[in-house]
Design goal:
single chain; Ribosomal Protein S5, domain 2; 2 domains; globular; disordered C terminus
């Protein structure tokens, strides 16, 4: 039953890396945090008003990455891969001190974050996790892109579909059960872009730190990176990784089956804003009451453990 309890990291962790869009080197220190604190970003380059709560309500921009802002306009961007690492490892509480405005891109996936967090170990805490269970199907559409969620008694499941004109990417799909599947192919899948889009992205002042070391670049029917792809569904797997990171911003572990077509950060954030104010479509699970747990999940006592 230990997985129903909140977790933080066992001791502080330090590292640095280059921001994908700013091109600036950021120093990071991740510290253990108290129960119910969630994930907090602290901009250490600022003397005041520097606390940013990692929550879907604080997403101020979702173009090419997820950016969080506080009430004073202080931001931290490209949080999604670190948030996905927290989600996958089951880390509920942590303070992320950062001296720049963008989280390092590392290798373009969550693999480096996962390895670093595992190196310091995790600590189980005394309070139970915050979990919501979807009770009714909920659908959302925006600009021709769709996302929905429906009940799932076991945990989070994601079915994601891509539809690219580029033949190499093409129509790629994958279904992942976060509560039971091996997730290495998900957290090691890198961000990607088309070669013909690079100039446009850079003209917009973005991708200053982008390189073949931290992103897959596709040119026509070729992968420009040495070694090619890490797995044969790396494109859609990275989209699933992004979704997990953005779902971590809900503040809950969500029990439901997600179906998403051609989505991204903006669609996921708009979806969460609608879903989490539609109270008739979910219930919050109170693990203190095991009778309620058995009734709601309809599972036996020996299957109560909740996976990250």
């Amino acid at each position: 039953m230990h997985n129903i309890f909140q977790k933080t990291i066992a001791k502080e962790l330090k590292f640095e890396g280059i921001g994908l869009h700013t091109g600036e080197t950021a120093r990071i220190k991740i510290c253990p945090a108290n129960t119910d604190q969630g994930i907090i970003f602290l901009r250490t380059d600022l003397n005041s008003n520097n606390k940013i709560v990692a929550n879907f309500k604080n997403v101020s921009n979702a173009k090419l990455c997820t950016t969080l802002s506080n009430e004073f306009g202080v931001t931290v961007s490209t949080v999604e891969h670190l948030m996905a690492a927290f989600y996958i490892l089951g880390i509920d509480n942590a303070v992320v001190e950062i001296n720049k405005s963008e989280v390092p891109i590392m290798d373009g996936s969550s693999k480096d974050f996962i390895d670093l967090l595992n190196s310091v170990g995790l600590k189980h805490q005394s309070k139970k996790r915050k979990i919501i269970k979807i009770t009714n199907k909920f659908e959302f559409e925006y600009n021709g892109k769709t996302i929905s969620i429906e009940p799932n008694d076991e945990g989070l499941e994601v079915d994601f579909k891509l539809n690219y004109k580029n033949k190499l990417i093409g129509n790629q799909s994958n279904r992942i059960k976060f509560y039971k599947d091996e997730l290495e192919k998900i957290y090691s899948s890198r961000t990607f872009c088309l070669f013909e889009d690079i100039e446009k992205i850079k003209k917009n002042g973005l991708a200053k730190g982008g390189s073949l070391n931290n992103a897959i670049v596709v040119k026509d029917d070729k992968i420009l990176n040495d070694g090619g792809l890490r797995n044969n569904k790396e494109f859609v797997n990275h989209k699933i990784l992004d979704l997990a990171g953005d779902f971590m911003l809900s503040g809950y572990r969500v029990y439901g089956s997600v179906n998403c077509s051609e989505g991204g950060h903006q669609l996921t954030n708009l979806f969460l804003r609608k879903l989490l104010t539609s109270y008739s479509n979910f219930i919050e699970i109170d693990f203190e009451n095991l009778d309620q747990l058995r009734q709601e999940f309809k599972i036996s006592e020996n299957k109560i453990a909740v996976n990250a």
